[in-house]
Amino acid sequence: xxxxxxxxxxxxxxxxxxxxxxxxxxxxxxxxxxxxxxxxxxxxxxxxxxxxxxxxxxxxxxxxxxxxxxxxxxxxxxxxxxxxxxxxxxxxxxxxxxxxxxxxxxxxxxxxxxxxxxxxxxxxxxxxxxxxxxxxxxxxxxxxxxxxxxxxxxxxxxxxxxxxxxxxxxxxxxxxxxxxxxxxxxxxxxxxxxxxxxxxxxxxxxxxxxxxxxxxxxxxxxxxxxxxxxxxxxxxxxxxxxxxxxxxxxxxxxxxxxxxxxxxxxxxxxxxxxxxxxxxxxxxxxxxxxxxxxxxxxxxxxxxxxxxxxxxxxxxxxxxxxxxxxxxxxxxxxxxxxxxxxxxxxxxxxxxxxxxxxxxxxxxx
Length: 365
Ligand code: MN
Hints:
Blueprint: H1 5-13, H2 15-22, E1 35-41, H3 44-53, H4 63-71, H5 75-85, H6 89-97, E2 102-107, H7 117-137, E3 142-144, E4 146-147, H8 153-166, E5 172-174, H9 189-197, E6 202-204, H10 211-218, H11 228-242, H12 245-248, E7 254-256, H13 263-276, H14 287-294, E8 295-298, H15 305-315, E9 320-321, H16 331-340, H17 345-359
Parallel strand pairs: 1-2, 2-3, 4-5, 5-6, 6-7, 7-8, 8-9
The structure holds manganese (II) ion.
Residues 38, 40, 205, 257, 300, 325, 328 line the site of manganese (II) ion.
């Protein structure tokens, strides 16, 4: 038998592997489609508005990070701004180098949620138009989530409809609290009505803690990704669970990043304490049933086999999707983590792409 490159690769892992290698992918293992689902971009108008906002004395826990990113030129901030604004060459080159077939893009946190309602509504539309244009330029490489302004709930519902039906986008992105309010407040109902009617999953992405909880996080700069983002977004998820929202909208799907923002680890105790309470709203299902039926989690920024193993056992493999958190975390680390983690191939395929194709209605190839 003649041992050329194709024969060797084919013997090692099947014909699909050979075709992947022939496309020039850097990673020779695991012939699977890789869809990364929490990948950030920005538009110049958003960064300019964040720069103006963080030049003021506004008291908000998101201000220090965005003041640093928009007002300083360091190797980190110049790279982050450049990579957020790029939806073409550099981003796709990094995807190619790491075997990433597709990024599901979303406007970087805090989206438009710190801006005046009229300004936020206009900027959300602009961001969604630019996103649709980027997807049109690279239809096999990008999908995207709709930016909305929750501070204008009726307009947000309209934008969800425009994004799903006219722009062909794949779901909705909301960056946790909006002016210190959470989505279980009655005023946000139009957003869930639209999402439920259009089968649009809502990705709840972190931002820094709301005003009432932020102060103790600030001393050691804990308000960002090290702890504050997860504490804020985990609280948001638990509020939605116990609010009765999923009795009202049984088909609603919420997506949480960062391996579920801590909630999976707490499910037993949340169930126990919810069952023991006479003061909270009665629910049609237990909190953990709601979490398994109505939520999905992603691995964004949490490349830890032990945490993935726990979530696979606690939630089942159907509701876990792979993500990088580009450009804030590195693509090689996220790809190598999932390439190498000890998970059966059928399940790994679901996490790398099958679940994202189903949940975000992404065309299979
Ligand atoms: Mn992120």
